Every structure is written in structure tokens, then in C-alpha cells.
Amino acid sequence: MCCSVLAGELKKVLNDLYLKAELSCLTPGLHVDNRKLEQKLVPALEDCCGKNLVLIYGSQCHPEMKTWQRKYNFRQPEEPDCIGILLGQERREQFSQEARTFYLTPGWLQHWKEIFEENLGWDKTEAHLNFGRYERILFLDNGISSVDEEKLLEFFDYTGVPIEIRPVGLNHITNLIQKLIQYQ
After folding, report:
1. CA distances (Å), 159 to each of 111, 112, 127, 149, 152, in order?
2. Among 103, 91, 72, 104, which Cα is nearest to 1's?
3. Are 105 and 5 contacting, i.e. CB atoms less than 8 angstroms apart?
4. What single DSSP character describes residue 29?
5. Could you write out the DSSP letters of every residue in 30-76?
6. Distances from the Cα of 97 to the Cαs of 91, 101, 133, in angstroms?
7. Distance CA 141, CA 160 (A)
8. 115 Cβ contact list (under 8 Å, min separation 6)
9. Cβ distance 116 to 158 under 8 Å?
10. pTM here?
11. In Å, how far are 8, 42, 142 from 1, measured between CA atoms?
């Protein structure tokens, strides 16, 4: 089970590792509202309880995540969020030292309107205010699909923050998945 912002990466990794696994995805951006995330995630965890579940969600996407992990007995990455899952904390910190950075994945780019406009209710002015603390947006190009430059321009217009594209690959998330499935 995963947040759908990482679904593309997970499908690719599972395919590359020749793993046949059922991938259930939850609505993107639920982490911005703890109540909504709990309403969607807890019933899904209850349905999967005892089924050797791996949850690909950040360990800090909800304050009760560790409690749920103990209660429903699932395995999960230690990384705090989807960017950590994709990059790893060391690489993330390296990129952050270059500039105050907001990270954007292909999944975030695909779902940004749901996350920011619908879930957070930000119009363009509020987006400019909230993104104003960043010097850049770093689009993490994982190479699994072509970069949608039109969507990047639309997101730039919405945020007012310059966007850089950085190739990142899938090494970290692949290693995470391999470690998590070894403990089955």
C-alpha cells in the first residue's frame, strides 16, 4: 500500500525486481490533513491486518504512524516523507544545502492541483506566499516518464518559484523495497 504520489516509482521498482505484489494506492496529499489521512488509511490497514503488509508512506506523514505500525504490524521505511523515500535523507540534505528547496516528484506534479488547490485551498496568491520562502523547486526526474514541461510551467506560474530539473534515478527506493521485502 502506498500514497499515489509514489505509485509510478513503486510500479517500476516492483517490475524491475520481478516482484508480483498487489499495489493499493491512497489518494495523494492526504498528509496535509491528519483527519483525512486517518479516515482513509486506518480502514485500509484494518483490511490488510495480518497480510504481511508493506506500507510505503513517510514515517512522519501522520503523528500516529508509529502507533499504527505496532497495532497493524506493517513494515514501513524509516524516512519521514516521500522525498526521503525517493532520495534518502543524505542526498536530500545535500540538495538542500545548495538552496532553500521545495521538492517536486512526477507524482506531486501530476496531483499538485488536488494537493494544493483542493486539499489546502490555496489560490495563486496564497501559493506565492507559501512558496515564497523557497529559492527553487527541484523537480526530481526519476527517468520513468518524460518530463511534462507544460505542467512544470503551470506549476511555476502557480508558485512563482524557479524550477530546476534534477535526474535522480531510483536507487534509494529500490534499496528500500528490497530491505522491506527481505523481512517477510
Report:
1. 15, 11, 5, 15, 10
2. 72
3. yes
4. T
5. GGGSHHHHHHHHHHHHHHHTTS--B-BS-TTSSTTHHHHHHHHT-B-
6. 10, 9, 15
7. 20
8. 28, 29, 32, 108
9. yes
10. 0.86
11. 13, 12, 20
pLDDT tens-digit profile, the chain (184 residues): 888 899 999 999 988 888 777 788 888 888 888 899 999 999 999 988 767 888 899 999 999 999 999 999 899 999 999 999 999 888 888 888 888 999 999 999 999 999 999 989 999 999 999 999 999 999 999 989 888 899 999 999 999 999 999 999 999 999 999 998 875 5
Residue with cell 507559501: 130
Rounded to 10°, the helix 34-48/65-72 angle is 10
Put the strands of the sheet holding 101-104 in their side by side order: 101-104, 136-141, 163-167
